[in-house]
Every structure is written in structure tokens, then in C-alpha cells.
Design brief:
The complex is a heterodimer of chains A (260) and B (542). Chain A is 32% helix and 12% strand. With 260 residues, chain A is α+β, with helices and mostly antiparallel strands. In chain A, the strands form 2 sheets. Chain A has a 5-stranded mixed sheet with strand order 2-1-5-3-4. Chain A has a two-stranded antiparallel ribbon with strand order 6-7. The mean pLDDT of chain A is 90. Chain B has 542 residues and is an alpha/beta fold. In chain B, the strands form 4 sheets. In chain B, strands 1, 2, 6, 7, 8, 9 and 16 form a 7-stranded mixed sheet that branches. Chain B has a 5-stranded mixed sheet with strand order 17-15-10-18-19, with helices on one face. A 4-stranded antiparallel sheet of chain B has the order 11-14-13-12, with helices on one face. The chains are: A alpha+beta (260), B alpha/beta (542).
């Protein structure tokens, strides 16, 4: 098996692709394959990882043109074609670099974020947009005497969004993020919706208003790439659709390109 | 190329896991606080990976004295009782903080926090958010940090604590390009977490390399009970790539059974009373014994079975486990998992007071890098509580330190720079050194130990310490430094294990016969610093 890896050294400034031949062990993940390259061929190869268990969300890379967690993606399934995913093309993933999916795996940095070195991208922009939406819990009243106010059902409803690990896979998969640098992006909006729907908050519409702009809820075109690539099953497109519906019920005219 | 940046602050917090984030939040109430993360805030560290839960006394039928006693008994009475007292009494309040900040924990139909049973505890007092408890805590803390004034330095790692005389006055750090940053602080909080990545099989994340133990030791702080390493009973055994990955104790808490190759529920022979929910040290040794004596599975583990539970219970209470095993083709609703012990938690660490003060002025510590809270064996669910209780305390103590403005001898920084430059001419790839170290630690300083095995492992460590890790580029300087830290930590563990002539909790010396139970042991803490090493003894009434 050949691992074809995007390389970039800020000192020289010229990107290139390097091929490495790796023996795929049964159960080998893309992350393990990257370790193998580092150990057997080139210990200057740079990539991010931490938990190895799909919880920390640091190892998302573009694998065969699809944003995935390296620690969760099985090499054999990619070669067998049993783990194929087709996304709506987006700027950055559409310019194809040739590879043969039966024997080669193409690994590139997450699109839509600046590359620092090799597979390591600069997340500042991603987190800045997230932060801009004020993702800090604002309870409607002081802490209750009793432990809490939520029913089990409400907890389950929130879990669809609290499961987000902020890995930016959705950000890299979103065609709108690719063409509009001002768009908040799926992860930030899903997180905002999580606070909007938290029954412990005031639910006065201020969360919806925070992204009621052409760069917010209304920018989404419902390609659903975000939901498909999410390693945790979070559905940002559904959150966005619900937010728009609620705004429209409140009399807001849709101003964006897409409709649910 | 070495234009070192200088950062000044009141409190410097090193490490952005549960303890560090909590400490930074608290410290920021007193002055300018900087939080350093080797990766990105909240993404590194093991808190976010913690699955099972958080122990807190919340119900009338439970009590603080009972939680204290469970913790001391679980810790083989090596815990510092003052620290345990603080842990137990403040865990509920710190839990309340998290919920007030928006954390979403599982609840009962009565809208109370749900709790489940964990090993070694007489009351089901472990609070949880499914099996992603740590992730929920971290998400909450990181959101809270965004609303605070804490300055976060990402992709930056501390390589050495800096001192003025005996006082810690800040730290030298490397950024992601390998450039040096100097940080001056009135107080420094070490919250770097654990280090079981020095073992071949480990649950820890990439950051579990024990940097804080090495930083503290090199600066002259005293560490206690470094031989106390917890091997979690249930780590994945295959595929190779998943080896060591944690299978949460919640699986047993929810009713999972341990079976050997013959289908025998073997815990009946080791702890018939507590069975699968015995303490982790006991369960790990039982599993290891089954495997060593030839009753293991084909992949070299034992079976952990939940297939008798309703599918819905598994789907709701253990969703991450279900998903993780499905990815490897095992449906845990229908078939058993295969598990074996994996290096998980270091109970030893920097000696602290209940206020989080280490033995060095200006240096505070909290979380897994400290010793004394968990004694010789940690109870499941006590670590997450530890991060919040002592994170707050250490952050507060650091915040209350006087403003002084530190200085560091210029020559010290030149020395560090020369040391880093030495890696470019190193002898050996870092991965090679680490690979050999991990095997030596697993073989000689693992679940079962003898003087002979420890001395042999010590010999390998000496050999590896004589090599210089080689940096392929400036981005590898940190990895080289980390390798040196891993060697320091390994030495501390091996030396601690040789200093303790008894079996106690997680530390088993097969070459020593003893006629006392842990509560009657004549020994207390082992201690190690640059200036002294030994073991404390006490009078035991006959």
C-alpha cells in the first residue's frame, strides 16, 4: 500500500506529495500508518493527534478527499472500498491529485484552513468563528436549590449537539466554508443551536439572533456534507434548518441561498 | 533564529486538561493568567478521554465518611488523609460548578443527577454523562475559559521550570516552530497530567509522557510514591492498533462479567465478595494471573461480556464503547469483548499540601501530576473529582501569591538553548529510544515486580539515557525533550519500586514475603528529590 502524503515546509514554501510504502496490518488505522511513516521513513513528518480514541478531535485530515479522523479510519476498509463516501465537491477538495484508491491512500491537510506544516493546519480561524458566537452557557436564573431542571428527554435532545468534539471535519467538508471565508461554519452553528435549545437558558431568541445574518444561519446551502463526515453523528444541517424555521415563524424573511 | 519571546503574567498554568483549565479559571480572578497547552486547549490531556464518571456524595443514604473510607481502603491506606478529606468534601461543590456552567450530566426521572456503581465503593456515587463524562466536563470548562480573561498559548510546551534561588519564577517553553519562549510568573501551577505512555500498553493520550514529573524533579521538588502505577484491568487487546485503549469501568458498573477461556467467572476465586467491582489493582492482578496461567483468550486477554444486558441499556449507557467495538467488527450487544490490563494512571507525584503547594516556593500542582490523594490505588471516578477539587485550590493559592516579578539568570537560558541545539547532532531517532523504554518498563516495572526485574529495567534505562535523541528539524526538538522527560519518569518509578520493600495496592513485589495487611504496614510514602530519597516508616501497634 502507498501512502501519498501532502508535504509543506514553511522554510522552502513549496508544497509537494511524497509516497511511502507501508504494509497494512489488520486493523491498522490511518493514524497508525502515519506513525509507521514517521518511524520507518521520515521523522520530520508533522501531523496532529492526541487521544487515539476519537474523542479529542485533533487528528482530522483529508483522506481520499474526505475529512476524517485519522485514528478512526481503517486503512483496509479504504483499500477495499467498503468505507467510501462521496461528498458534494467543495473548493479545496475538488482539485484532485491523482491516486488509485485500490492501492493508494491520499492524505492531505484539512481544507479551508491555512497549512502550517505538512498535515498540520492553523485552527485559529475555526475557533475564532466559534468564539464569535458566544458559546458560553447563560442560565436564565441563579443555580437551582435542587440539582437541576432538565428532564431526561431534554438531556438526550441536547446530546445530539454536545457530542461535538470540535474536530473541524465539517468545516473542511463544507462547500460554503470553501467559498465564503466569512461563513461561521457548521460546527459553530450547531454549538450555538445547542445553547438555544438548552431549557436552562432564557430561550428568548438571542441565540438565534446571534447568527441571523448572511454569514450565519442563512449562508448554509444544505449540501449535508457536515452531517455525513461528522465522526460523532452531530447534524449541523438539521440545527441550521430548525433555526431558520424558528426565525421564519417569528416573521423573519429567508435571506439566504438555501431552503430546508 | 532564536529570538526568544518573553511573556509576563501573575499565574502561569502548565497543562490544559481538567485540572489545568480549572486552575486557570480560578487563578484568573486574581490577576493575569496564562494557560499553556502542548496541543490545543481542552484537546490534549486525558480528562477529555475519561469515560466513566465523577464521584460525589450527593444522597442522604451516602455520606462523606463513607466516601473517605472507601478511598482510603481502595488506596491501601497510603493516601494522605488530609488530601482525601478535601477531595471528598469538595467534590460535590465542584460538580455543582460544572452544572452551573452548563454541563449536561445524565439525570434520573426525578431530575436528579444519575449515579452508578464503580469498583471499591459501597454506594453508587459515580456521576456521568453517558460514557463521555470527561468530554462533557472539558467542553464545559473550555466554554467557560472563552468567557474568562485567561490568555491561552496553544501548541506550546514547557521544557523547563525557571528559578530565582529556590523559588520557581516561570518557565522556558518551545512553540510549534521550535522557538524558545520565556515566561515570568509570580506563581506557577503544574497541571501536566500523567505519564503512562512510558509503558508499552497504555490508555493515555499522546500527552501522557510525564513531563510534569520530570519538570518538577529537575527543579528540585519532592515527589512521593512514584512506584504506584495503576494498571486498568480492561484495555482493548486487538487489533494491534487499539491495544491498550480504555474500556471503561462503567462496563462492569453496568453489569459486565469477566470470564476466562473456559467461560469461568474467575473473580469468584480472587474476590468473591466484590467480584467484577473489586478495586482496580485486584482485578488487574486477577486478569494477569489468568492470562499468565494459560486461561486467556486467543488474543491474550480475558472476556468482558455485557451481551446478557438489554440492548437498550448498552446503547444508552455505553454508546462510545458500542461504537468503538462496532468499528472493529465486534457487536458488544451480542458477543464479548476481549480485554487485558493496560497502564492507566500514576498515583504518585509531587508532594502537595491541601492548598496545592509543592515543596518549592512559587510552584503549585494539581491533578495526576501530584501524589498522595489516591494512595497506592485510585478508585474509578476519583480522578475527575481530583482535577476539579485540587484544580480550584491550586489556582486559588497561586492567584493569592504576592506580585514580585521574577528574574532568571541569562546563563540558564543560554544553557537550555545549547542543550536543545545538541539534539541536531543526536545519536538516535527518538522513536527508537521510546520503543525500547516502553518494553523495558512493561517487562520489568509492570504489574508484577521483583528486585531483579527492576534492576534490569534500570540498566536499560541507563543505557537509553546515555543516548542523545536526534532532531530531524526544529519541529522535532520538543519530541526529543519529551523523550528525556520519559526517561526521568521511568527512573523515578523504578527507584520508587526498589525503595518499597512490600506489596501494597498497585505495587506488587513478588520477591518479598510480608506478614502485614496494608493498614498495618510499617511503611508510608517513598520520597525522591534531587537531594534525598527514601521511604517513611511509622510505628505500628501490635
Amino acid at each position: 500500500m502507498i501512502l501519498r502524503i501532502f508535504r509543506y515546509d514553511p522554510a522552502t514554501g513549496t508544497p509537494r506529495y511524497d509516497d511511502f510504502e507501508i504494509d497494512p496490518d489488520p486493523g491498522m488505522t490511518v493514524l497508525a500508518a502515519l506513525f509507521a511513516v514517521q518511524e520507518q521513513y521520515d521523522d520530520s513528518l508533522a501531523f496532529r493527534y492526541s487521544c487515539r480514541g476519537a474523542v479529542c478531535g485533533t487528528c482530522a485530515v483529508l483522506v481520499n478527499k474526505v475529512p476524517r479522523l485519522a485514528c478512526r479510519t481503517q486503512v483496509q476498509a479504504l483499500l477495499d472500498g467498503t468505507d467510501e463516501m462521496t461528498l458534494v465537491p467543495s473548493p479545496g477538495s475538488a482539485e484532485t491529485h491523482p491516486f488509485d484508491p485500490a492501492r493508494e491512500i491520499l492524505i492531505e491537510p484539512l481544507p479551508h484552513l491555512p497549512v502550517i506544516r505538512d498535515l498540520v493546519v492553523d485552527w485559529d480561524e475555526f475557533f475564532e468563528k466559534y468564539r464569535a458566537l458566544g458559546p458560553v452557557f447563560r442560565p436564565k436564573d441563579s443555580p437551582p436549590e435542587n440539582e437541576r431542571l432538565m428532564e431526561p428527554g431534554a438531556v438526550h435532545a441536547l446530546e445530539a449537539y454536545t457530542n461535538c468534539i470540535l474536530c473541524a471535519a465539517c468545516y473542511g467538508a463544507c462547500p460554503v466554508d470553501g467559498k465564503d471565508p466569512a461563513y461561521s461554519g457548521p460546527a459553530a452553528l450547531a454549538k450555538l443551536y445547542r445553547f438555544h435549545s438548552d431549557p436552562r437558558e432564557a430561550r428568548d431568541g438571542s441565540r438565534l439572533a446571534a447568527a441571523d445574518s448572511p454569514e450565519g444561519w442563512w449562508a448554509c446551502e444544505f449540501h449535508t456534507n457536515c452531517r455525513r463526515v461528522c465522526p460523532k453523528g452531530v447534524p449541523p444541517d438539521i440545527a441550521i434548518g430548525k433555526a431558520r424555521q424558528e426565525l421564519q415563524r417569528g416573521g423573519r424573511k429567508p435571506s439566504g441561498p438555501g431552503r430546508p | 533564529m532564536h529570538a526568544d519571546d518573553v511573556v509576563n503574567c501573575h499565574v502561569l498554568v502548565i497543562g490544559s486538561g481538567g485540572a489545568g483549565a480549572r486552575a486557570a479559571l480560578e487563578a484568573s480572578r486574581y490577576g493575569k493568567t496564562v494557560l499553556v497547552s502542548r496541543t490545543l486547549t481542552g484537546k490534549g490531556g486525558c480528562t477529555t478521554m475519561a469515560e466513566g464518571g465523577y464521584n460525589a456524595v450527593l444522597r442522604k443514604l451516602d455520606s462523606c465518611p463513607m466516601h473517605v473510607e472507601d478511598t482510603l481502603r481502595g488506596g491501601a491506606f497510603l493516601n494522605d488523609p488530609a488530601l482525601v478529606d478535601v477531595l471528598v468534601h469538595e467534590a460535590p461543590d465542584r460538580m455543582a460548578d460544572l452544572i452551573a456552567w452548563g454541563a449536561v450530566f445524565d439525570v434520573t426521572d426525578d431530575r436528579e443527577i444519575a449515579q452508578r456503581p464503580f469498583g471499591g465503593q459501597r454506594f453508587p456515587r459515580t456521576c456521568y454523562a453517558g460514557d463521555r463524562t470527561g468530554h462533557e466536563m472539558m467542553a464545559t470548562l473550555v466554554e467557560r475559559l472563552r468567557g474568562s480573561g485567561v490568555r491561552q498559548l496553544q501548541d506550546t510546551a514547557v521544557i523547563e521550570l525557571l528559578k530565582d534561588g529556590n523559588r520557581v519564577t516561570g518557565a522556558a517553553m518551545l512553540d510549534r516552530d521550535g522557538d524558545l519562549i520565556i515566561c515570568y510568573a509570580d506563581a506557577t501551577v503544574l497541571a501536566t497530567g500523567g505519564g503512562t505512555r512510558i509503558y508499552d500498553i497504555s490508555t493515555n493520550c499522546a500527552a501522557g509522557t510525564g513531563d510534569g514529573f520530570a519538570l518538577g524533579y529537575r527543579a528540585g521538588a519532592e515527589l512521593i510514591d512514584m512506584e504506584m502505577v495503576q494498571f486498568h484491568p480492561t484495555g482493548a487487546v486487538y487489533p494491534y492498533d487499539a491495544r491498550g485503549r480504555l474500556i471503561t469501568e462503567a462496563v462492569r458498573g453496568e453489569g459486565g462479567l469477566l470470564l476466562n477461556r473456559d467461560g469461568e467467572r474467575f473473580m469468584t476465586r480472587y474476590d468473591p465478595e466484590r467480584m467484577e467491582l473489586s478495586t482496580r489493582d485486584v482485578v488487574s492482578r486477577s486478569i494477569a494471573t489468568e492470562i499468565l496461567e494459560g486461561r486467556g483468550t486467543p488474543h491474550g486477554g480475558v472476556y468482558l461480556d455485557v451481551s446478557h444486558l438489554p440492548a437498550r441499556t448498552i446503547e444508552e449507557r455505553l454508546p462510545v464503547m458500542l461504537e468503538q467495538f462496532l468499528a472493529f467488527g465486534v457487536d458488544i450487544r451480542k458477543e464479548p469483548m476481549e480485554v487485558a490490563p493496560t497502564a492507566h494512571h500514576i498515583m504518585g507525584g509531587l508532594r502537595i499540601t491541601p492548598e496545592g503547594q509543592t515543596t518549592l516556593p512559587g510552584l503549585f500542582a494539581c491533578g495526576e501530576v501530584t501524589g498522595g490523594v489516591h494512595g497506592a490505588n485510585r478508585l474509578g471516578g476519583n480522578a475527575l473529582a481530583d482535577t476539579q477539587v485540587f484544580g480550584k485550590r491550586a489556582g486559588e493559592s497561586a492567584g493569592k501569591e504576592a506580585v514580585r516579578g521574577g528574574t532568571v539568570a541569562r546563563s540558564r537560558i543560554e544553557e537550555l538553548r545549547a542543550h536543545l541545539d545538541g539534539y541536531y547532532g543526536g545519536t538516535t531517532p527518538p522513536a527508537e529510544i521510546v520503543g525500547r523504554l516502553r518494553l523495558a518498563m512493561w517487562d520489568g516495572a509492570g504489574i508484577f515486580r521483583t528486585e531483579k526485574s527492576l534492576v534490569e529495567t534500570g540498566r536499560v534505562i541507563d543505557e537509553l539515557a546515555a543516548l542523545t535523541p536526534r532532531a530531524a528539524g526544529s519541529q522535532n526538538l520538543l519530541w526529543c525533550r519529551t523523550v528525556e522527560n520519559m526517561i526521568v519518569l521511568s527512573r523515578l518509578i523504578v527507584k520508587g519500586a526498589l525503595l518499597r520493600p512490600e506489596s501494597r495496592g498497585a505495587h506488587v513485589r513478588k520477591d518479598i514475603l510480608q506478614d502485614w495487611t496494608p493498614d498495618r504496614s510499617p511503611y508510608m510514602h517513598t520520597y525522591q528529590s534531587l537531594s534525598r530519597a527514601g521511604i517513611e516508616t511509622r510505628e505500628v501497634q501490635v
